[in-house]
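Regression report. Comparing outputs from two consecutive submissions.

Submission 1:
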Amino acid sequence: MKFIKTAWRNIRRSPYQALAAISIMTLTFLAVSFFTFLLVGSSEIISYFESKPQVTAFFKNEAKQSDINALENKLSDTGKTSSIKFVSREDALKIYKEQNKNDPLLLDLVTAEVLPASFEISAVKIEDLASISDMLKKSPIVSEVIYQKDVVSALTSWTNAIRKIGVALVLLLSLVSVFIMVTIIGIKISQRKDDIEIMKLIGATNWYIRWPFIIEGVFYGIFGALFGWLIATAALLYTTPFLESFLKGIPVLPASYVGLLVLLGIEILLAVFLGVLSSFVAVFRYLK
C-alpha cells in the first residue's frame, strides 16, 4: 500500500509526463480494440456466408437419380462440405412460384419440366469453395455451376489484410509505448536522483526504491487500456444502428456485452505486462 501511495504521488507531481504516458497507451489499446472488433466482425461475416449455400450446381435433364446420389457421396467424402441440399424440379417450381407469386403471367409459363434439379452446397471453409466448384464442373451430369468467386475471394483477402495490418500496427504501437514509458520513467528517476541517494544512505534497498516506479508504469498501462477500450466501445455502440442497417440480414451486431468485458480484461492484462516491462527496463537502466 505504501508503494502505491508513493507511485500515485509521483504521478500527481508530474501530470504532463503522466498524461503523455497514458495518451500513448490509450492510442495503443484503442488500436487493439478497433482491430479486435474488425477481426471478430469479419470472422462472423465469413462464418455467416459459410453457413449459406455458396455453390449451386444445376443438373442436366437426363441426369439419373443414382448418378446424383453418387456425386453427393463423392462430395461428402472430401470432408470439405458442411451441407448438401438437393433441390428437385418440383421443389424448384415451388421456390419459383413463391418468388413470382405476384406475377400470374410468369407462373403460367413455367412448369417443373423446365426447371432443372440442383445441389445447394455449403463449405466447411470458405477457401474450399474453389475445389468444390471445380469438382462439380468436371461431372458429366452437371450443366452449370454458379460460384460467386469474386465475392468470396474479396472477403477472404480483406480479412487476411485486416489481420496482418492490425497485428503490425499493434506491435508497432506497443513498442512505441514501451520506449516512451521507459523515457518518461527514466526522466522521473533522474529528477529524484537526490532523493534516491538519501534513501540509499539511510538503508533503503534497491527494490524498495524500484517498486513505486514499477507500480507507476502499471498505472499508466491500466488507465491507457481503460480509456482506449471506453473510446472504442463507445464508438462501436454509437455506430451499431448504422452498421446493422448496412449489414442487414447478417447477425454480427449488436456486440455481446460479455465479449466486450472479456476484451477489457485481456487488454488490462496486456497493459499490466507492458507497464511492468517498461518500468523494469527503466529502473534497471537508470537505477544502478
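Submission 2:
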Amino acid sequence: MAEFIDYYKILGIAKTATEDEIKKAYRKLARKYHPDLNPNNAEAKKTFQQINEANEVLSDPEKRKRYDQYGENWKHAEQFEQARQQQGQGSAGFSGGQWQGYEGFSNFGGEEGQFSDFFEQMFGGRRSGRQTRAYKGEDFNAELQMNLADAYNTHQQILTINGKKVRITIPAGVDDGQVIKLKGYGNPGINGGPAGDLYIRFVISTNTAFKRLGNDLYSTVKLPLYTAVLGGEITVETMGGKIKLKVAPETQNGTKIRVKGKGFPVYKKEGSFGDLYVTYNIQIPTGLTEKEKELFHQLANLKKS
C-alpha cells in the first residue's frame, strides 16, 4: 500500500487554512523545491511532486471536503457513498481515514458477514453471496516536462500509456504545475467497471530570456545611450517574433514599457494573449576615440554653463 501523505503537513498549514493561505504556502514551497532550482536533486523533485499533489486536492473545495472526511481513502469516497446508499445505513464510518466500528458492522447489507466488493478490497472484510459490483479502475498520475517555448504553441506529443502509444494535443498556454485529465487511460475497472483516468501534471522550465508571470512576459532589453538620449527606434525579440519599438527622447535607465498582446497565450482562448513588459537597460559606450571623448567633454561643459 502506498504511503499516506498528509497534504496539510506537506504544505505546512493547519486544517483550518483558508484558500489564500493554501495558495501562499503552495507558491512559497513550489519556488523553493522547483526542479529548475534543484537540478539532480531527487528528494527535491519528490517533494515538489507532493507539494503539487497537495495543492491540487486542498485548493479544490470538493476534493478537500472528501479528503477531510475520508483521509487517505478520499479517492474512494464516491464509491463508499454509493455502496452505503445501496446497502443501507450502518453504525460505522470513517474518521480521519481510519475505519471505526468494523466489528459492529455485521448487519450492514442484511446478513452477517455479507460485505460488498468495495469493503472487501479496501478493508479485507469477508463477503458472502454471489453479487459483485463494478468499480472504476485506479487513476494514474504522470509528469510531463516541457520548456517555455513548447508551452507557447499548441502542439502534439506521443505518450506511452500501458504499452500503448497515445497522441495528445497540448493547448498553448499551459502553466507550470497545471494538471489535465485524460479520461479512461488509467487502470482497467473492476468487475466490468470503467477504466480510471490519467492525470498529467506539467513541469515547465524557463529556457528563454523571458520570465513568465501568469499570461504576462517580462524581458530586459539593451538600449544604446544615444538612442536613449535622442530617441529613435529599436528591434526587440518577443516569443512570437521580432517587433519594432519607438523610444522616447531622454529615456531613463530602468524604464519599463508595456507591449499589449505580446505576452503568453491564454490557455484555451485562441487569439488571446497576455502583455509583454520590457525594461530598458541603457548601455554606456566603451572604446571611445579621442574625438568622441572631446565631444562628451563639450557636452559636459555645456551643461555646466
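Expected: both submissions complete independently.
Actual: both completed, but the second showed a warning that disappeared on reload.
Relevant detail on submission 2: The first strand starts at residue 93 and ends at 95.
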